[in-house]
């Protein structure tokens, strides 16, 4: 199957993008890496009248560390993040998770912001975005706003981004001392969509745990890191608080088992890395 006809533009400035989005609204589609959008076009899951290629925007492929945060631009590639020398130091969770994103060919084209905005509940980057309490900057022709990761995802492939908005920047907090970060994923084979993925961030005061792939969006929870905390009980309670359903890949029972067992493994790995 091939996509229906559409117009194709290559704007050079954000202002041009915003003007097109303002004029076309739901009939416009932004493309950067195209790793998800092209497939959806070919299957006619989306039928835009105009495709906006943002790869020609000036100074849009960047990563900057500033004021205890890392800022990433809209066309910065996943593979660039993976190969970046300092990623393991300032973004250790992303450093561990990024190699699970598809295959190298996908990461060479796919953008960090693109994956986060696509909002696939099985995807690794939205999970990390939520676990790290990241922020995303959304802009239209009339305003700019920052949205917390905890508010951004509404359902599968559904986010708070409006049709006339472009995501111009992602912000992640830089890793903290005496804090452990860990990521684990289960899939049918490496590079496939996750059956379940897990992220944990721990320090002496709290445990933050996030899970993806088991529900319609990534979900996170926090517990006080008390000496007598029973993580098995906490994970069991958490697994039953989420709407988990059977699908063509596996059962809800299996996903709950993964959450309890691999979730515990992920948290313990993060705890070991605290010191």
Structure description:
With 275 residues, the chain is an alpha+beta fold. It folds into 3 domains: 7-53, Uridine Diphospho-n-acetylenolpyruvylglucosamine Reductase, domain 2 (2-Layer Sandwich), CATH 3.30.43; 63-173, Uridine Diphospho-n-acetylenolpyruvylglucosamine Reductase, domain 3 (2-Layer Sandwich); 181-272, Enolase-like, domain 1. The protein is built from 11 helices and 14 strands. Strand 6 (135-139) and strand 7 (144-148) form a beta hairpin. The mean pLDDT is 94.
Brief summary:
The chain has 275 residues and is α+β, with helices and mostly antiparallel strands.
Structure keywords:
275 residues, alpha+beta, Uridine Diphospho-n-acetylenolpyruvylglucosamine Reductase, domain 2, Uridine Diphospho-n-acetylenolpyruvylglucosamine Reductase, domain 3, Enolase-like, domain 1, 3 domains, five-stranded antiparallel sheet, four-stranded antiparallel sheet, 11 helices, 26% strand, globular
Q: Please, how many helices?
A: 11
What average pLDDT do the residues reach?
Answer: 94
Taking the sheet with the most strands, its summary is: 5 strands, antiparallel
Total tally of structural domains: 3
CATH class of the largest domain: Alpha Beta
Q: Report the sheet-strand fraction.
A: 25-35%
N-to-C SSE series?
EHEHEEEHHHHHHEEHEEEEEEEHH
- Per the CATH scheme, the topology name of the largest domain is Uridine Diphospho-n-acetylenolpyruvylglucosamine Reductase, domain 3
Shape: globular
CATH architecture of the largest domain: 2-Layer Sandwich
- Secondary structural class: alpha+beta
The helix fraction, in percent, is 25-40%
Provide the spatial order of strands within the biggest beta sheet. Answer: 4-5-10-6-7
Distance between termini? 53 Å
Low-confidence stretches are none
Radius of gyration, Cα only, in angstroms? 19 Å
> Could you tell me the number of beta strands?
14
């Amino acid at each position: 199957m091939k996509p229906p006809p559409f117009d194709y533009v290559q704007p050079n400035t954000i202002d041009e993008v915003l003007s097109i989005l303002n004029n076309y609204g739901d009939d416009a589609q932004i493309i950067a890496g195209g790793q998800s959008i092209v497939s959806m076009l070919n299957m006619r899951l989306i039928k835009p009248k105009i495709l906006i290629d943002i790869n020609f925007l000036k100074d849009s492929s960047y990563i900057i560390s500033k004021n205890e945060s890392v800022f990433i631009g809209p066309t910065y590639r996943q593979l660039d993040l993976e190969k970046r020398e300092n990623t393991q130091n300032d973004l250790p969770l992303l450093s561990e998770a990024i190699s699970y994103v598809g295959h190298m060919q996908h990461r060479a084209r796919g953008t960090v912001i693109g994956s986060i905005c696509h909002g696939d509940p099985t995807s690794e980057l939205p999970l990390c975005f939520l676990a790290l309490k990241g922020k995303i900057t959304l802009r239209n022709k009339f305003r700019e706003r920052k949205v917390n990761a905890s508010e951004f995802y509404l359902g599968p492939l559904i986010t708070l981004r409006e049709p006339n908005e472009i995501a111009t920047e992602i912000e992640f907090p830089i890793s903290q001392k005496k804090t452990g970060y860990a990521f684990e994923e289960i899939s049918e084979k490496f590079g496939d969509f996750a059956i379940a993925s897990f992220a944990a961030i721990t320090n002496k005061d709290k445990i933050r745990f996030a899970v993806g792939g088991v529900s319609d969006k990534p979900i996170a929870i926090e517990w006080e890191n008390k000496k007598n905390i029973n993580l098995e009980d906490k994970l069991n309670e958490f697994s039953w608080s989420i709407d988990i359903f059977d699908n063509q890949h596996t059962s809800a029972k299996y996903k709950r088992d993964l959450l309890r067992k691999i979730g515990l493994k992920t948290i313990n790995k993060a705890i070991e890395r605290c010191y």
